[in-house]
Write a sequence for this structure.
């Protein structure tokens, strides 16, 4: 009789505690690390180390050169490798990163870019509806032209969408400036916005079937 009798219960107590702790851990991870909390700043490793800061910032290539569908359709789309080859058939051809691009092109296998911005299926979004009414990329994606690696800038939550739909004026500019991410209005942003809201007949809706159809 080295151990008192109550110690017989230790295995059962240990099992119950382990069960409770495990569930608490799962809850904490599920709650804090679920997409709602992680999406802003989401910045996955991409298969090719392509830099917006270099191409769109330093070199000043317009967003629409690569995201050519953005004014025409609901998706902006990621460019096919052909677009890269317009330059990289001759530029930096021996760089290991460009070798990956050239190989993808030669074999006809698309580069597997990791998708960053993604709404749930039940929410409807449309790029052309925004950019053609003078909403710049910078309002929703931030200073992409200063990012070496793209990261999510806005939460893309329903309340975030609605905040702008309820009071869009300060987010509207001349359509000619939608890809000029550095631009700021000279005077008051609301005053400037109201001018273009009138010109483009902007009428933002907040009824449910605008975004849930
Ligand atoms: C030379 C081509 C090129 C230009 C110019 C370019 N992009 Fe991109 N863009 C890409 C490629 C390739 C990807 C996918 C890889 C990545 O995410 O970095 C991408 C990804 C993105 C994404 C993230 C897509 C996702 O998965 O959610 C956004 C947002 C974006 N670009 C916005 C812009 C904006 C805004 C501009 C203009 C300031 C711009 N891009 C200019 C090629 C380009
Ligand atoms: C308009 C021409 C142009 C287009 C289009 C273009 N690039 Fe570039 N890219 C350049 C130039 C110029 C450089 C090199 C700058 C320098 O001298 O370091 C470069 C550099 C790079 C580098 C860095 C290479 C290294 O090792 O330094 C990568 C990676 C790259 N580009 C990928 C891409 C991808 C992917 C696309 C297509 C989505 C693309 N580029 C489209 C002109 C272009
Ligand atoms: C009003 C906000 C808003 C504006 C303005 C906007 N985007 Fe987006 N963008 C989004 C949202 C939301 C998504 C995710 C869409 C989805 O999952 O259906 C997205 C996704 C993307 C993607 C990923 C591929 C795709 O088509 O879904 C690219 C690339 C992109 N945007 C580029 C741009 C560029 C370039 C501009 C400016 C010319 C721009 N965006 C303007 C909100 C915006
Ligand atoms: C920065 C301001 C802004 C943000 C953020 C924004 N929107 Fe919009 N949205 C607008 C403007 C401006 C229009 C154009 C209204 C019009 O057609 O006159 C618009 C139009 C739309 C339309 C087209 C409506 C129609 O009549 O067909 C849809 C759909 C839409 N937005 C969905 C979304 C969703 C979903 C989000 C969030 C992921 C979002 N918007 C975020 C400003 C914004
Ligand atoms: C301007 C666009 C827009 C409008 C208008 C809108 N929603 Fe949403 N809604 C969204 C987006 C985007 C999401 C997805 C957000 C996310 O990823 O969590 C969403 C998500 C939801 C969800 C899922 C739960 C959640 O919060 O994520 C419900 C339920 C919902 N909406 C109901 C409604 C109802 C009811 C209305 C009308 C009173 C409405 N929505 C109007 C854009 C909109």
């Amino acid at each position: 009789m080295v151990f008192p009798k109550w110690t017989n219960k230790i295995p059962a107590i240990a099992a119950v505690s382990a069960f409770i702790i495990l569930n608490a851990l799962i809850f904490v991870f599920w709650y804090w690390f679920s997409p709602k909390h992680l999406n802003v700043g989401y910045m996955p490793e991409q298969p090719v180390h392509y830099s917006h800061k270099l191409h769109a910032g330093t070199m000043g290539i317009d967003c629409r050169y690569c995201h050519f569908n953005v004014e025409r359709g609901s998706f902006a789309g990621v460019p096919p490798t052909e677009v890269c080859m317009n330059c990289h058939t001759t530029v930096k051809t021996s760089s290991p990163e460009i070798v990956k691009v050239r190989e993808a092109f030669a074999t006809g296998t698309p580069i597997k870019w990791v998708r960053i911005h993604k709404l749930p299926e039940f929410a409807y979004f449309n790029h052309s509806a925004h950019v053609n009414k003078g909403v710049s990329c910078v309002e929703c994606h931030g200073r992409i032209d200063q990012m070496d690696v793209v990261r999510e800038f806005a939460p893309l939550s329903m309340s975030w969408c609605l905040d702008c739909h309820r009071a869009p004026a300060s987010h509207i500019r001349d359509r000619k400036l939608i890809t000029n991410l550095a631009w700021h209005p000279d005077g008051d942003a609301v005053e400037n916005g109201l001018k273009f809201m009138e010109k483009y007949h902007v009428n933002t809706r907040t009824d449910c079937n605008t975004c849930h159809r």
About this structure: The radius of gyration is 25 Å. Residues 9 and 15 are 10 Å apart (CA to CA). Residues 29-38 have pLDDT under 50 and may be disordered. The pocket of heme C (ligand 5) is lined by residues 119-120, 123, 157-158, 161-162, 165, 206, 208, 210-212 (CB under 6 Å).
